[in-house]
Amino acid sequence: MKEVGAFEAKSRLGRLLDWVEAGEEVTITRRGKAVARLVPPKTPFDAERGQKIAARIREMRQGVTLGELKIRDLISEGRR
To answer: How many structural domains are present in the chain?
Structure first.
């Protein structure tokens, strides 16, 4: 784990993000006391999985209607 001061973190944010992206944890300190920690996300975003989920949602809504209701009426109802 790397440790950097707040002033350095402010001026070198890009480098800190590179370290975190590579899996490193960075502690930001102020006057020697830890005030924040930059850590990589627990699970990286998977664009392909997101696209598959969106496609599945589109499939599920095929044929679903509001019957005689109109979307504008439902919106108005929600605003009351």
So the answer is: 2
Judged against a pLDDT cut of 90, whether residue 8 lies above it is answered with: yes
DSSP-assigned beta bridge partners for residue 33: 30
CATH number of the domain to which 19 belongs: 3.40.1620.10
Task: Collect all residues with Cβ–Cβ distance below 8 Å to 28 and sequence separation of at least 6.
Answer: 3, 4, 5, 6, 9, 34, 35, 36, 37, 38
What pLDDT score was predicted for residue 16?
A: 96
- DSSP one-letter string for 28-40: EEETTEEEEEE--
Give the range of the structural domain holding residue 20, as residue numbers without chain letter. Answer: 2-38
**Is the pTM above the cut of 0.85?**
no
First to last CA, the chain: 53
